[in-house]
């Protein structure tokens, strides 16, 4: 018993205990740093995907605007009680019957991201100072990218009618 108490009073082996404590502390710090880095990478990747999908949705409504700009005349649904949807490009909604969609209405892709847009006729009004020959047609455009980002805008186009 005196030999055990003599060993405890001396500092033999204390270096080994201190070294083990330091290794354990450095291991915990390394694991914490790795976890923090992984979380930071996930945040950065989610932000990148968010921005990408937002820009694709933004490009979708601009695609719809170019489609409207290419139209030579007012929309066919502007004159009567028919479906106000002028153009539906894409297949986002499950309740839409695909056989009723116009040809070429599959999802389009920008940079590997699918998008769709829908152009809806809202109203028409007179163009101040232009007489009765010109009418302003107002549209509501919704564009969606990857089913995560959506952009909605109001557009208008002036057509010469009755010529």
Can you walk through the features of this model?
The protein has 163 residues and is an alpha+beta fold. It has one domain. The protein has two helices and five strands, in the order ααβββββ. It has helices at 2-9, 14-70, and strands at 85-89, 108-110, 113-126, 134-145, 149-160. Strands 1, 2, 3, 4 and 5 form a five-stranded antiparallel β-sheet that branches. It is rod-shaped. The N and C termini lie far apart (117 Å).
Number of helices: 2
Radius of gyration: 33 Å
| Shape descriptor | rod-shaped
Summing up helix and strand content along with how strands pair, one would put the structural category as alpha+beta
* Topology, number of strands: 5
Mean pLDDT: 78
Uncertain spans: 78-82
Give the helix proportion (percent range).
25-40%
Largest sheet: 5 strands, antiparallel
Q: Note the beta-strand portion.
A: 25-35%
H/E series: HHEEEEE
What distance separates the N and C termini? 117 Å
Number of domains: 1
Highlighted features:
alpha+beta; 40% helix; 163 residues; 5-stranded antiparallel beta sheet
Short description:
By secondary structure, the protein is of the alpha+beta class.
Question: Which helices and strands occur, and which strands form pairs?
Answer:
Blueprint: H1 2-9, H2 14-70, E1 85-89, E2 108-110, E3 113-126, E4 134-145, E5 149-160
Antiparallel strand pairs: 1-3, 2-3, 3-4, 4-5
């Amino acid at each position: 018993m005196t030999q055990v108490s003599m060993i405890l009073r001396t500092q033999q082996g204390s270096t080994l205990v201190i070294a083990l404590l330091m290794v354990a502390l450095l291991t915990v710090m390394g694991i914490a740093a790795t976890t923090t880095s992984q979380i930071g990478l996930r945040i950065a990747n989610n932000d990148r995907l968010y921005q990408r999908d937002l820009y694709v949705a933004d490009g979708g409504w601009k695609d719809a605007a170019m489609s409207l700009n290419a139209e030579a005349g007012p929309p066919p649904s502007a004159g009567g009680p028919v479906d106000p949807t002028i153009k539906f490009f894409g297949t986002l909604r499950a309740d839409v019957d695909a056989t009723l969609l116009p040809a070429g209405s599959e999802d389009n892709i920008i940079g590997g991201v699918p998008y769709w847009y829908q152009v809806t006729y809202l109203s028409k009004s007179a163009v101040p100072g232009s007489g009765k020959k010109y009418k302003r047609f107002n549209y509501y455009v919704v564009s969606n990218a990857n089913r995560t980002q959506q952009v909605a805008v109001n557009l208008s186009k002036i057509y010469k009618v009755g010529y």
